[in-house]
Amino acid sequence: MATGNMKDIKRRIKSVGSTRQITKAMELVASSKLRKAKQRSESGRAYFETMYGLLSEIAAVKKDFSTIFTEAREVKHKLFIVIAGDRGLAGGFNSNILKAAAAAHAGDAEKPKIIAIGRKAVDYFDKHGYEVVAKYPYFAEKMKTAYCMDIAQLAVDLFAVGEVDEVQLFYTAFVSPLVQTPESAKLLPIANIGTGTGEDLGLITYDPSPEAVFDRVVPKFLMSMISCAVVESFASEQGARRTAMESATDNADEMIANLSLVYNRARQEKITNEITEIVSGANALG
Amino acid sequence: MTPFKLQIITPDGVFFDGMTDNVIVRTTVGDKGILAHHEPYVAAITISKFKVRIDGEFRYGAISSGIIKVGKDKTVILAQSCEWADEIDVDRAVKAREVAESRITEYSKANDQKNLDIAEFKLKRALNRIEAAKMK
Hints:
Number of domains of chain A: 1
Strand order of the largest sheet of chain A: 3-2-1-4-5
Low-confidence stretches of chain B: none
Distance between the termini of chain B: 23 Å
Structural class of chain B: alpha+beta
Number of strands of chain B: 8
Helix content of chain A: 55-70%
Order of helices and strands of chain B: EEEEEEEEHH
Low-confidence stretches of chain A: 195-200
CATH superfamily of chain A: ATP synthase, F1 complex, gamma subunit
Largest sheet of chain B: 8 strands, mixed
Strand content of chain A: 5-15%
CATH topology of the largest domain in chain B: ATP Synthase, domain 1
Strand content of chain B: over 45%
Number of domains of chain B: 2
Structural class of chain A: alpha/beta
Order of helices and strands of chain A: HEHEHEHEEEH
Number of helices of chain B: 2
CATH class of the largest domain in chain B: Mainly Beta
Largest interface: A-B, 28 and 26 residues
Largest sheet of chain A: 5 strands, mixed
Oligomer: heterodimer
CATH architecture of chain A: 3-Layer(aba) Sandwich
Radius of gyration of chain A: 29 Å
């Protein structure tokens, strides 16, 4: 066995080792970001739930209740709000959600308008010739809920003037640190608003009117829904990256173990060879 | 006076959760004071100052658009953002006002109505915070 081969193996062990360092570091970063993202999603939940309760209460008050946001129209143009990640190396996270969005309009005559959140979503929809009405790359990590107001307002405006007849949200639900599933939710028109909490519904005074309050609540409701989805997608991205990097680190460990074995075998073989040579040399002399 | 439960919730979490006996907020139709045993009531709140009486003393704050919902057992204010007067960062508010003012001149020259609206909204918020900070 030649020394050249041993040098190659040594070099490979070193390079796999440094890759492993990177994947390990990414794994640790992802898990600490995941922890933060989980806290963030907890703190936003109270707002979202109260908002949802309020909306459904108002909707339950009046049976003949109708505003522009509840009326279903014939769907000609759609608006998709798609939340993907800013970076790759997160397993199937980005491609799963983008595929889900693409599949959702597969049978339609016309491509939907897009609001893209996350650099990967921006890149994808730009490249595939969609009409991207708004782009929010590098948005999720430093997001404050108030920033989502812009997005919600844009969606509401487009819907109100009739440029789109339906708004759908695509995000990745965080089921557990190991499982994340792409989900979609219809934002507008608002359908299936429940029957409220049963708190003396008929007696609430709405100032100036239920419709006026409802119309003011809708953008805020969308805002909190989008922000929840962004936070959840971000947590999912970190979860997916953590899992991907964990298995990459494991693979690197395995490779290093195998290569070390090969290296040691080669080294031993070389020593045996040398001994044999010396012994046969000594024999020849003797 | 009879106390009742008040919650102020913002997207960043629960801002206030405690007992009060008087809350005064500015709704889209005017100032509204809430005492205990108020009838169930819902209204939208504009960018404004508000006050809450806690232990006999009014505490002032700034709120940027929200909803107030008076229920039987508690009153909830859902606010996009909310700050107590004594916790407002005045320097930041003054800076925000300056930025908003310069944007307004810029956008009104360019006739950009949409951005003008946004800038005006931001100016209103900054002014509201500056005023509220004086009320501590």
